[in-house]
Design a protein that fits this description.
about 65% helix, 9 helices, elongated, mainly alpha
């Protein structure tokens, strides 16, 4: 009698259904799910194991297809290409704008990507996108199998995201063709106009306030008060001789 690989028998003669875990095999670990069929009859065990094998395959396929939602795919692609764009901007900030050769390459890729999205063709002329998609899946550890709906959706959205990434790189580089000065000047003027004007305090009021605060508790003797008054009078005389309006702006 033929015994499939997913059917095992214990030393007590009890048959088990054994299903290897794919994630564990990828990590080179030996692991499998075992379910007792609770029978020593090989024919009954074979019948039960075949039914379980079919159900398990359907379950794994369903889980694989539902591994990522459309929103999750778009979020992942947005994060991936946003990070690449920011890295590109940092490179430009450090080393300067892209060369004419690189710009031409981005422009050609943009054309190819636009046609690929519209016509459903390959992103790379004369080839296919399998390696491109596979590298992306491997980088993020996705469990999407070719032929599933989720894998097809990722392939399509990856072409759209790559198209818009190239467009964003070219747009950012083009934004560096000129400088904008008017807006900066207008903004500076606007800030100056809206800035709060410090309150005006006359010199005499400031002297009176200082004298009152410093003489709390009658700490100054009459002699000290007389000397301070002479000093302040001299200060006012000196300032009024050089300034039209003697005043101090409090901070």
């Amino acid at each position: 009698m033929f015994v499939p690989s997913y059917l095992a028998v214990s030393r007590h003669g009890i048959y088990y259904f054994r299903w290897p875990m794919r994630a564990a095999s990828m990590e080179r670990r030996s692991s499998s799910v075992k379910i007792s069929l609770q029978t020593r009859d090989p024919k009954e065990a074979l019948r039960l194991s075949r039914a379980l094998s079919y159900l398990t395959q359907q379950l794994f396929q369903d889980c694989t297809e539902r591994g990522m939602t459309f929103e999750e795919i778009r979020r992942l692609l947005t994060t991936h290409f946003s990070e690449r764009l920011e890295q590109h901007k940092l490179t430009i900030a450090k080393s300067g704008r892209i060369s004419h050769l690189d710009r031409s390459a981005y422009e050609n890729t943009l054309v190819f990507a636009t046609e690929a999205v519209q016509d459903g063709t390959s992103l790379f002329p004369g080839g296919n996108d399998d390696d491109f998609v596979a590298r992306f899946i491997e980088r993020y550890g996705l469990t999407l199998q070719p032929g599933t709906n989720t894998h097809t959706t990722l392939h399509t959205e990856l072409k759209r995201a790559h198209r818009d990434y190239c467009s964003s790189v070219l747009a950012y580089d083009s934004s560096l063709d000129s400088y904008q000065f008017e807006n900066k000047i207008d903004d500076a003027r606007s800030v100056d106009k809206t800035a709060a004007v410090p309150p005006y305090t006359s010199l005499q009021k400031l002297i009176d306030r200082y004298t009152q605060d410093s003489n709390l508790g009658v700490q100054w003797t009459p002699k000290t008060q007389h000397e301070k008054a002479d000093h302040f009078a001299l200060l006012i005389e000196l300032l009024t001789a050089n300034v039209i309006r003697p005043a101090i702006l409090t901070p």
